[in-house]
Amino acid sequence: MAAQATEKLQDLSLNGQNGAKADAPAAGQATPGEAEDDSDDDQEEGEGAPEAGAAGVPVSNLFPNNQYPEGEICEYLNDNAYRTTNEEKRYLDRMNQDFLTEYRQGAEIHRQVRQYAQKNIKPGQTLTEIAEGIEDSVRALTGHQGLEEGDNLKGGMGFPCGLSINHCAAHYTPNAGNKMVLNQGDVMKVDFGAQLNGRIVDSAFTMTFDPVYDPLLEAVKDATNTGIREAGIDVRMSDIGAAIQEAMESYEVELNGQMHPVKCIRNLNGHNIDQHIIHGGKSVPIVKSTDQTKMEEGEVFAIETFGSTGKGYVREEMETSHYALTPNAPNVPLRLSSAKNLLNVINKNFGTLPWCRRYLDRLGQEKYLLGVC
């Protein structure tokens, strides 16, 4: 099912993820950042490189020395300023260079595909056409098509391309046979991830074709930038959420002659990201809360903001479209050989990375619906 009201991949489990639905059109934006020394915002520009989807040249061929654009680096402030002046700390940071290189490569891939999508998505296209175009571009630029056993674990899609329209806030990707078409008056949240060696770059943006929704897009963009600015080592999640809410809810949208305040979707959150695991266990709220959890050094976070002209709450609805194995789940004996074979395919091709039914179709799997229910 899908989440109706904004956007973002949320709480994946073995039996799948529904979409979230709200009572009014919603917009969402998500941007990955590091609590250590690097953050990547959805509007960043990288250097060099042709359009994704056009040539399909793997990004590693365009940057043979592995020197990828660094993005926007936020300097440490106040009591944490010693982290950039202390020689020992700088040395330890350099030890993490491979970790950062994989993220920067993924960020450059995401940037190119994002630009390609924003230029080429038009009303009249089917959701399946849009999703497969984005996913094929990511695979081409990572150099991993994911058709050979284990190839997708090395690089490719970080999770299925989410395309959530209007009241569907998040967590929906078209399943096989989907006939939905993007219309001129729609608000569509585009959410996709690129990964190298399990380092997932999770970023999203919203597309509209009617300027009446521009204030809604401005609200979520301002809220996202606010969240990035507030993030850092030892920062409490509650403080980030309060700042995001203050920025988001300072906007309003005029629809049909009536002014509607923009509200944060209070039950959708950002999250930290672990290797091969899209939701690492920590949540970043987008409203004021009492959460005293802190960001820690070396963690990677997706700052996600969801704005709605409705009540600011989503409920599960629609069909299940996202799936993922639960990390460290207890072993459950499977009686059917077909179920055992399906689990084996999932383990070898996705591990704990999220996937969707279309991905099983690409691998030639058939009659698997009972096994994923």
TrEMBL record:
One GO molecular function term of this record is: metalloaminopeptidase activity
Q: Would the keyword Protease be found if you checked this record's keyword annotation?
A: yes
Q: Which SUPFAM superfamilies match?
A: Creatinase/aminopeptidase, Winged helix' DNA-binding domain
Q: Which GO terms describe its cellular component?
A: cytoplasm
Source domain of life is Eukaryota
Per UniProt, the ranges with Acidic residues bias are 34-48
* Alphabetical list of Pfam families matching this protein: Peptidase_M24
Q: How is the cofactor bound?
A: Binds 2 divalent metal cations per subunit. Has a high-affinity and a low affinity metal-binding site. The true nature of the physiological cofactor is under debate. The enzyme is active with cobalt, zinc, manganese or divalent iron ions. Most likely, methionine aminopeptidases function as mononuclear Fe(2+)-metalloproteases under physiological conditions, and the catalytically relevant metal-binding site has been assigned to the histidine-containing high-affinity site.
What's an example Gene Ontology biological process for this entry? proteolysis
Q: Which residues cross the membrane?
A: none
Determine if Metal-binding is one of this entry's keywords: yes
Q: Where in the cell is it found?
A: Cytoplasm
Q: Where is the composition biased (Low complexity)?
A: 16-33, 49-59
Q: Which PROSITE patterns match?
A: MAP_2 (PS01202)
Chain segments carrying region Disordered: 1-64
Give me the residues that bind a divalent metal cation 1, please: D191, D202
HAMAP family per the UniProt record, alphabetical: MetAP_2_euk
**Protein name (record):** Methionine aminopeptidase 2
Q: Which organism is it from?
A: Penicillium argentinense
